[in-house]
Inverse folding.
């Protein structure tokens, strides 16, 4: 939802750019969500969001893209939150953000992870935390088995009667692909450990679903890096299995992922993909700006999205029958 007064005060150039962007959004075929039936989940790496000041045009364009979804995991959010506040103001009063603290050292680029969500469709359920890797006791200390350069950010949400947990992360680029493997395997192990812990304390039908998403810096599903993240059972939703869903501007790399455990494939509709706001030509959005500078106003990544089915009543009823 956009403030009417905010829209009325945009310049002619921004108005023209918004019309072009709306055409590109329409071509992406992002379906509308339905209250108590579905919501649209997305992940988007917004390049150095908060480090490089955004123009007013970029703030409106970013808000327009975000507004197509109900819950978005944003990576590369920096320690300065002023541009995030500007985007939320354009989105309107129904939108809210929950975000992690910034990393204090340069190893993680002083990044945060944020969840932006439309409160009409998704409610924050109270839990938000960095994920912790497995630890082993050495003497009197508990020492992590591995280290994430940027700690994954985990939060719990609810849509209708559908409870779920989302983990969003930004895996290191590093000096080589091999350096990313331990982080990816650590993510997979975290999910496996989380599910095992939930099963000890709750009935199986009441366990919250877990989604894992973000910028994994995985070039393709044929990469050993993809094998690492899926080593404990995480899978790509069927709607996102098509190879053309590259999330870089050239659409040939699958750096960004949305993954889940395949216990409940009915949690997804058959709708998902990439929202291509670039379409091979940035000039209509930012006349006179070169492509490199464009990526620091919009991004060098495209949002990856999938529609989630929240009508879980049939599953719950089958679980009641199975317990008899």
């Amino acid at each position: 939802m956009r403030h009417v007064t905010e829209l009325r005060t945009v310049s002619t150039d921004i108005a023209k750019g918004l019309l072009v962007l709306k055409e590109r959004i329409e071509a992406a075929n992002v379906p509308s969500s339905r209250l108590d039936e579905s919501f649209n989940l997305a992940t988007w790496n917004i390049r150095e969001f908060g480090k490089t000041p955004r123009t007013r045009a970029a703030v409106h364009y970013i808000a327009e893209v975000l507004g197509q979804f109900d819950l978005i995991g944003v990576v590369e959010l920096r320690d300065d939150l002023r541009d995030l506040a500007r985007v939320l103001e354009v989105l309107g009063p129904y939108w809210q953000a929950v975000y992690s603290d910034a990393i204090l050292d340069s190893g993680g680029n002083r990044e945060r992870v944020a969840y932006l969500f439309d409160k009409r469709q998704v409610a924050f359920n109270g839990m938000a935390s960095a994920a912790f890797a497995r630890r082993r006791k050495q003497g009197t200390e508990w020492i992590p088995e591995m280290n994430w350069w940027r700690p994954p950010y985990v939060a719990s949400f609810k849509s209708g009667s559908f409870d779920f947990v989302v983990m969003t992360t930004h895996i290191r680029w590093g000096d080589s692909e091999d350096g990313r493997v331990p982080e990816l395997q650590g993510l997979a192990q975290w999910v496996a450990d989380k599910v095992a812990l939930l099963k000890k304390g709750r009935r199986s039908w009441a366990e919250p679903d877990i989604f894992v998403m973000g910028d994994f810096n995985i070039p393709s599903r044929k990469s050993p890096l993809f094998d690492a993240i899926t080593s404990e059972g995480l899978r790509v939703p069927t709607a996102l299995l098509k190879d053309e869903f590259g999330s870089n501007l050239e659409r040939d790399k699958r750096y960004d992922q949305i993954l889940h455990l395949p216990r409940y494939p009915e949690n997804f509709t058959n709708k998902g993909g990439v929202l291509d706001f670039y379409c091979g030509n940035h000039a209509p959005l930012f006349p006179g700006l070169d492509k490199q500078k464009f990526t620091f106003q919009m991004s060098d990544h495209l949002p990856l999205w999938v529609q989630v089915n929240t009508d879980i009543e049939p599953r719950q009823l089958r679980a009641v029958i199975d317990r008899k």
